[in-house]
Structures are given as structure tokens and as C-alpha cells.
Amino acid sequence: MTDAPGGRLAGMERELTAPVDLADAEGRLRPEAIGWARHPLHRIALPRGLPRVHAFDYWCVTNREVALTMLVADVGFAGVAMVSLQDLGGGAPVERIYVRPRGLPAPMPPGADGEVAFEVRRLRIEVGPRRLAAQARTLTGRRLDVDLAIEPPAGHETINVVVPWSETRYHVTSKQQALPARGTVRLDGRSYRFGADTDGFACRDFGRGRWPDGIDWRWAFASTRIDGRPVGFNLGAGWTDTTPVTENGLVIDGRVHKLGEAVAIDFDPRAPRRPWRLRTVGTRRVDLTFTPLTLRPVHVPPVFRLRQCMGRYDGTIVDDAGRALRLDGALGLAESVHGRW
After folding, report:
1. What confidence tens digit (pLDDT) does each residue in 175-192 have?
2. With b meaning 16 or more CB within 10 Å and e meaning fewer, what string describes 18-45?
3. What's 90-112 look like in SS3?
4. For 196-225, what is each residue's pLDDT tens digit?
5. I want to staple 178 with a disulfide (CB 3.0 to 4.6 A). Which of 3, 135, 230, 264 is the partner?
6. Is 281 helix (H, G, I), strand (E, B) or coil?
7. Strands 190-194 and 170-187
8. What is the C-alpha to C-alpha distance for residues 57 and 243, in angstroms, rounded to an integer?
9. Number of domains present in the structure of the chain
10. Which CATH number is 172's domain given?
């Protein structure tokens, strides 16, 4: 492996089937950890004091009316927690964002099966693989209450990938799509129900690693039902381009159909609410149009820029057997992120 910026690591994308240590005692990436798996298999035990360690757990839970976002993240110099509810009909999200210098007040668990919970002024939050809960008050006095169960069927597969930029810069992620969600989110006096009858689905993005000093990615996902079967996808561009892996895959009826090819995610940066196009490069496995319903822009010059949209996907995806599935208004997210620090 090489530490040269942009250097491509030798090797082919391979499927891992047994647990493996992510890093050695000095925090260097173990070559045998590189690859992807259908379930979280990486043992994550990074030594204390390593620079540029990032840990986060991001959730997006949707029904036909709203999208709930929950985030806990610790990037060393700062910790961030967020609970946000976005009406898919438009308007600004209702949210509570908490930022703490030098990390969160509770440790982040090392693996995707762990939980994190803490309480600070105007926010109590619990994030785990099977339950999301929060009580939050916004700066304007609005109240958000979250009580959701995440209920994937036994054996439900996920997309778990190590992104190996170098021996000392790497990231392990678990992208979990088409997760059935059940429960209630309350905003002031109004309740929003999540369940099979309201198309309640969750997406999870769990990550741990040692990041480079610059990040650029485009990320897209959605979940829906086709002929009664849960169907989802996870697609990315930019983040893995200089490595032998991708984060791309379909999740159809609980089984991952991995995409090894790159995906082009194209949009107009000056007008991100115009339709986006998503296509696999060199194949026809993915051919989608994304139509935004909402836009969350965040710009902190010169270090960070986010354009994040909730919207609907139309088009086709093709499974491992060559069968095309038609998406008709599948609800999901598309975003573009640029950061330097």
C-alpha cells in the first residue's frame, strides 16, 4: 500500500466471509481487511490518540409524509448530534443540532452492533441498531419526540466496505438500506406513524476510520416496495474512486446484489433542485433520474459545502440475474459533499 495522495491500491474487490481485524496495534490498515461483506464483519479497535479518527452513525427514516434524520458523530476536535424532521411537502426542517468541542459527552461504540446515548440541555438521544429515540426542543421552542424500532428480517444483508486510501487513511462503513421501521415521531401536538402501511423505511450509514484531509463524495439511496418486496439501493461517487472497492449495491428482498462498477452521479451544482442523473459506468445496471422535493444547503467557506436533497427516483435497476426492476417514485436522498480541514 502507498500513502501517496490519490494512489490506487493494488488488488480486486473481494467478498469477505469471516470476521477480520480492521487495523494493527499501531492503527495501520490490515491488507486482509480490504473488501466488502454482506454483514458487519470488521473488528474495529483503533489505538487511542490516533490522528484524524472519525466515527459517526447516521440514520434517515422516511414515510410518505416526512423524513427523520438522526446523527451522532465524533471527529476528535468536535462532536455533533442532530435530530431533524423534514416535511416532504417543503419548508425548513425542524431540528435540534448540538455541537461540543473535542468530542461527544459519551463514547462512540466501536462496532455497528453498539449503542450511544446521552442527555444534554434540550436534547436526549439514543441511537442503536434496533432503536432510535430522542426528546428534543428547538431554539424556537418546538418539541420533537422520537420512538422508532428498526425491524429487519432475520438474515437481512447490508453493504459493508473498507475504503483503503492508504495504510494510515481508511474508512469502514456499513450502508444499510430497506430496513423496515415502525413507531412514532411527534412534532408538538402532531404524530407521524411509521410502519408497513405508511412505507416506513430506514437507511443507516455507520462509519469508523482515519480520514484524509479532504473529502468529496456524492451519495444516493432509496427504499421502496416492488410487487410487495422491499427494494433499496446505495450508490456513491468520488469517495472510493482511487481505491479497488465501491459502496454500490442493490438490496432486493433482503439480499445484496453488489455492484463493482463505478456510478456517475450528475447534477447542476448551481441548481441542485433540478433533476439528477445516476448511471453505472460501462453497464446498464443502474439508470435513474432523481427529482428533488427538498434542499438542505450548508456552506461554511472554505472548509465545507453540502447540498442534500430528499426526493423521488424513477428508472431501472438490474439484479444479479439480469432482471430489470422498475422504480416509480421511490423515496430517497441524494447529496454532494466537499470538505477540507
Report:
1. 999 999 999 999 999 999
2. eebebbeeebebbeebbbbbbebbbebe
3. CCCCEEEEEEEECCCCCCCCCCC
4. 999 999 999 999 999 999 889 999 999 999
5. 230
6. coil
7. antiparallel
8. 23
9. 2
10. 2.40.370
User: Average pLDDT of the chain?
Assistant: 94
Distance CA 80, CA 71 (A): 7
The range of the structural domain enclosing residue 303 comes to 213-341
Among positive and negative, which fits the CA dihedral 292, 216, 36, 28?
negative
Separation between Cα atoms, residue 337 and residue 218, nearest integer Å: 6
Whether this model's pTM surpasses 0.90: yes
What's the grid cell of residue 185?
415521531
Contacts of 177 (CB under 8 A, 6+ apart): 158, 159, 203, 221, 222, 223, 232, 233, 234, 251
Looking at residue 8, the DSSP 8-state letter turns out to be: P
Span 326-341, pLDDT tens digits: 999 999 999 999 988 7
Q: Are strands 143-150 and 170-187 parallel, antiparallel or unpaired?
A: antiparallel
Reading the block at residue 216, the C-alpha cell is 468529496
Residues 207 and 61 in one domain: yes
pLDDT tier for residue 12 given thresholds of 50, 70 and 90: low
Q: Would you say residue 154 lies in a domain? A: yes
Residue type at 167 in one-letter notation: E
